[in-house]
Design brief:
Elements (H helix, E strand, L loop, with lengths): L3 H15 L4 E6 L5 E2 L3 H8 L4 E7 L2 E6 L4 E5 L4 E6 L11 E7 L4 E6 L5 E5 L1 H9 L12 H8 L6 H6 L9 H11 L12 H20 L40 E3 L7 E3 L6
Parallel strand pairs: 2-9
Antiparallel strand pairs: 1-7, 3-4, 4-5, 5-9, 6-8, 7-8, 10-11
Helix pairs in contact: 1-7, 4-7, 6-7
Length: 275
């Protein structure tokens, strides 16, 4: 599932490619991905508008339009926003679910194999309400160790589960929670409330470090993730626990353990190094 680094890459690429472009129209092939709009209202409310900017909030890519509305794309497991250099024609075996035609002749399409992602159209008030339910951004300068401790440290849930709770901190998902906890030497199953101040400070530092490193690598391509040009992220080659279950821990050599007991997502850890 695309997390902060992957969606940050998507948003940056889209902003560089299409900021200032005018939307000429939209075709919707699979309406089940739409939220808070119909195919008709999506077309009526976006045609003729200019894309002011693309940016990221949590695990969503957001397009600000010149009429004040916002397109919010949650790629989830297999979604991708792709830029085509010219007019685009949907193929028979294509997984594109909707496509925006741009006035300059290019196309911007949303492709989703499993159709678990969503595309929403939000008014300013609706966007503000949606955003208010999200936690702070972990790479923002204001996200200090004290803020992190206040949002995470009181939780009685497992620390990995707390890290992935988008209401507490926005953008961290399974891959980077695994990595940050290994780097911090903290066992994923521990209750967050049992972490000491020094452990919370270390975890805050490692969360930010691993996210920055992954952004530099343009994210992690494990199965389906691709950027707007079809490229893949390079962080998997730097991962120290993710996708390494059963292999030796890079710190102590102990075989890494794995389980799906936390949130039904793969958790990988070292039983010796992480306490």
């Amino acid at each position: 599932m695309p997390e902060l680094p992957e969606v940050e890459t998507i948003a940056r690429d889209l902003h560089e490619a299409v900021a200032g472009a005018e939307i000429a129209g939209v075709r919707v092939f699979r309406r089940d991905v739409l939220r808070e709009c119909t195919p008709h209202t999506l077309g009526a409310r976006t045609a003729g508008t200019t894309i002011v900017r693309w940016w990221r909030r949590a695990k969503c890519a957001v397009a600000d339009l010149s009429n004040g509305e916002r397109i919010v794309v949650a790629p989830r497991f297999t979604g991708a926003v792709l830029i085509e250099p010219g007019a685009w024609i949907r193929g028979r075996h294509d997984y594109t679910v909707l496509a925006f035609a741009l006035r300059d002749g290019r196309s911007m399409r949303y492709r989703d194999v499993r159709r678990l992602g969503t595309v929403s159209l939000m008014s300013p008030d609706r966007f503000a309400a949606w955003e208010s339910a999200l936690g702070p951004e972990p790479l923002h300068p204001a996200f200090t160790a004290a803020v992190f401790a206040a949002r995470i440290g009181a939780s009685r849930r497992a620390i990995k589960t707390a890290l992935m709770d988008q209401r507490r901190v926005a953008g961290i998902g399974n891959i980077y929670a695994n990595e940050a906890l290994w780097r911090s030497g903290i066992r994923p199953h521990r209750r967050a409330a049992t972490l000491t101040r020094s452990e919370l400070r270390r975890l805050h530092r490692e969360c930010r470090a691993v996210l920055r490193a992954a952004v530099e690598q343009r994210g992690t391509s494990f199965r389906d993730y691709q950027d707007p040009y079809g490229g893949r992220g390079g962080f998997l080659g730097l991962a120290q626990v993710y996708a390494r279950a059963g292999q030796p821990c890079l710190r102590c050599g102990t075989p890494l353990r794995s389980t799906h007991a936390l949130e039904n997502r793969i958790t990988i850890w070292c039983a010796v190094c992480q306490r």
